[in-house]
Amino acid sequence: MIHSIVYLSSAKRLADEPELGTILEQSRKNNALLNITGALLYCNGSIIQVLEGPKDTVSPLFDKIKNDARHTQVITLFQGEVNARSFEKWAMGYITPNSRNMDELKDQLMFVNNPYIDQHSDNKILSLLQTFFRNNHRN
Q: Could you give phi then psi for residue 3, rounded to 5 degrees?
């Protein structure tokens, strides 16, 4: 089984392309060494990230991410075991959707607060992000 964590957060300040490039380069190197894959969506300071891999490496990485001073309001959208990786080809896939796309995605994530939907069994969040990422992926 693969452990997966999906979270939403807000950057404390807007990052420019060179800064994002540096973060991605370092993340890709570190993730490859730890057998972690995933995806990062960044738009106007809003961050949605998927981390997947062995629980004993994903959980400590997420703890480190939660304490990173560059962002705040870290909200766990999904955390649990999944049958397979959703982003197996990417040490860290990356996309910067436009504001309209990000607003649409956030609107679709509103069901996270619905107590009548069991997000763990259906992996609705991962499915939504897979679809969004496939339709908008840049590299």
A: -90, 135
